[in-house]
Design a protein that fits this description.
With about 625 residues, the chain is α+β, with helices and mostly antiparallel strands. The chain has a domain of about 150 residues: 7 Propeller (Methylamine Dehydrogenase, Chain H). Helices cover about 20% and strands about 30% of the residues. It contains 10 helices and 34 strands. A 5-stranded mixed beta sheet has the order 2-20-19-18-17. Strands 3-23-22-21 form a 4-stranded antiparallel beta sheet, with no helix packed on it. A hairpin with a 2-residue loop joins strand 21 and strand 22. The longest helix has about 45 residues. The radius of gyration is 35 Å and the shape is extended.
């Protein structure tokens, strides 16, 4: 249902150091190689293998659904509500054993909880709305979608960011999804209390039963005192001490018109973030002061597949800076709570603790500046990325522009391994390039005279010609600093050195598989020979009256049909057929895709695979 709200380039030297160089080439992942990308794409992504060292986990065997998290700041305790029990854990997580709580709630506490949230004077009506709210109003929250115009109107979660020092107004951050079937859209919008208040003080909506949309109620048709308002001192002077004294026409009107006519639009009239490939379920927010004293809103977004996105609002845009995999197995994020510098995340199988000020993971000045974390700054004296509460000496930070070139000293460049790629005429070669940041802008440096170049997502495609031979380098730039990510050298001829070793290894593997095949066939022939020999023995015994298969009942029903082969005998030929169905003893994935050109080499995902006799 719709959401509603209530009240530089080094010299290239072709070289191969070892066969590992080829494996390093294969490890280059595909990624964007040029231009800017939307800030809904995380700048960096940490898989579970890298993120696990930053996480602390709590789980009890045979206990599931850690979906309720309550933090008591006074006692520094976290209360975890699982399916069948409640746990009390000291914060932050340590090695101590959690306490299991058996909580019998007294009836007096139950009654007290029922009264919580009641507005003073809202006691319901005498005849209409007895024991019900009389101040209940609601309005649609709209979070406009991307350029196709669809609005994301299904509210998933809301985070309220209140100013700590009492200055300023609260901000509501909401996660929305689309109600249109097949539209996988998630959007984040912020709302201001004054905009909500304006809508709640505006016209009511008259719902007509004979049409699909309502019409605004005219001001003359709204009774006085205005329906849905709280009992104020002014109303008390008019003898309306509580809702029990309100006229019946006021209570009837609010019963029939709980919805406001106008929707609440987000601040600045547009969403902060829209993504079409990630489903957000939970959000928490806090305000973090930067080194300059300016405060930034930092949002943590939990996804449907168990990832955590850290986003910072810079200007009118929410930029996703980091993607952290939380769980070994994908599962939805059920609940999230912030406690001091810790983020607590509940899921079906565990509670995960994340340090929100773990600046030590950023190893260089450029990484520290480009992370744009308001809580982290680069210490020139310590040559480390550190948290900066109350310390300004020798620290640098730039949240707005992340100008690495002016803030960071020139760091020693990492010279990538230059891969020598032997090629043949008219071949198509794809040179991979994978920048460490999804926001980096990359360009290719190539020899002059190359005409057939195609920029692809996974790298650079080159059609081999005499002018295409030479050095290639992928240079990526972010924050004014540039470095070479990948370097190659195209040469004529056949592979030598480590490539020949790789072929030797491949020949060895092929010989191994052929040996296994010969051994299997030998075992199969021996098994069939033993079966035939046993059949002849049984037939000979049957002729002399020795029936070893007579049932206990004395009947002599015996079949002379040969026994059917065992499951192992039936499965072996199929396995051998599958094992020999590859190319040169290797499985079919080594042949990556059919090539329309005379020769095609892909330097990604597998060794240099050949497509026909003209390829290398």
């Amino acid at each position: 249902m719709p959401a509603s709200v209530t009240r530089l380039l080094p010299r290239l030297r072709p070289s191969w150091n070892s066969p590992v160089s080829l494996l390093l080439l294969l490890a280059l992942l595909s990624g964007p190689v040029c231009g800017r990308v939307p800030h809904s794409v995380p700048r960096t992504s940490l898989p579970i293998s890298e993120a696990d060292s930053y996480l602390t986990r709590f789980t009890i065997p045979q206990t599931y659904n850690y979906s309720v998290l309550l933090v008591d700041p006074a006692s520094h305790m976290l209360y975890v509500g699982a399916r069948d029990t409640i746990f009390a854990i000291s914060l932050p997580f340590s090695g101590e054993r959690p306490r299991r709580i058996d909580w019998m709630v007294p009836e007096a506490h139950r009654q007290n909880c029922r009264k919580k949230g009641k507005q003073e004077g809202d006691l319901g009506g005498r005849k209409t709305l007895q024991q019900r709210w009389t101040t209940f109003l609601k309005a649609d929250l709209l979070c406009p979608g991307p350029e196709h115009g669809r609005a994301s109107s299904v509210l998933q979660d809301v985070a309220i960011l209140r100013p700590e020092r009492g200055a300023g107004t609260p901000v509501f951050y909401g996660i929305f999804s689309s109600q249109w079937e097949g539209a996988a859209i998630s959007a984040v919008c912020s709302f201001r209390p004054q905009d909500i208040r304006t809508v709640l003080n505006g016209p009511f909506r008259e719902l007509k039963h004979d049409c699909n949309r309502g019409l605004p109620v005219m001001d003359n048709d709204v009774p006085q005192p205005r329906p849905g308002e709280c009992i104020t001192n002014n109303m008390k002077l008019q003898q309306f001490g509580s809702s029990l004294f309100l006229p019946d026409r006021v209570l009837t009107f609010i019963r029939d018109h709980p919805l406001m006519d106008r929707p609440v639009f987000p601040a600045d009239g547009r969403p902060l973030l829209v993504t079409t490939d990630t489903s957000y379920l939970r959000v928490v927010a806090h305000r973090v002061p930067s080194l300059s004293g300016k405060e930034y809103d930092v949002l943590y977004l939990g996804t449907e597949d168990g990832h955590l996105h850290r986003a910072v609002q810079i200007g009118a845009q929410l930029s996703v800076l980091e993607d952290l995999a939380l769980f070994p197995e994908p599962q939805p994020v059920e609940n999230m709570k912030l406690y001091q510098n810790w983020l607590l995340i509940g899921s079906r199988t565990e509670v995960t603790q994340v340090n929100t000020t773990n600046c030590g993971r950023l190893q260089s000045c450029s990484e520290c500046i480009l992370a744009r974390d308001p809580a982290c700054a680069w210490s020139i004296r310590l040559a480390a990325c550190v948290a900066h509460p109350g310390e300004h000496g020798g620290l640098v930070q730039d949240i707005e522009s992340a100008d690495v070139s002016s803030l960071c000293p020139e760091e020693p460049g990492e010279h990538p391994v230059v891969f020598e790629v032997p090629v043949a005429a008219a071949a198509h070669v794809v040179l991979p390039c994978s920048p460490s940041s999804a926001w980096a802008s990359c360009v290719w440096r190539q020899p002059s005279g190359v005409t057939a170049l195609t920029h692809r997502q996974e790298g650079l495609e080159v059609v081999i010609s005499p002018g295409a031979m030479g050095a290639y380098a992928c240079e990526c730039q972010e924050g004014g600093a540039a470095r070479v990510v990948a370097a190659y050298s195209l040469v004529w001829g056949t592979p030598r050195g480590p490539l020949s070793q790789a072929h030797t290894i491949g020949a060895g593997l092929a010989g191994f598989f052929l040996g296994v095949l010969a051994a299997s066939l030998t075992l199969l022939l021996i098994g069939q020979h033993q079966q035939r020999q046993r059949q002849r023995e049984l037939l000979a015994r049957d002729k002399v009256g020795l029936d070893l298969g007579v049932p206990p009942s004395g009947t002599t029903s015996y079949s002379q049909d040969p026994p059917s082969p065992s499951p192992e005998d039936e499965r072996l030929p199929l396995a051998l057929a599958k094992r020999g169905s590859g190319f040169g003893g290797f499985p079919p994935p080594f042949l990556l895709d059919p090539c329309p050109s005379p020769a095609h080499i892909r330097l990604t995902g597998a060794p240099l695979a050949t497509c026909d006799e003209t390829s290398i």
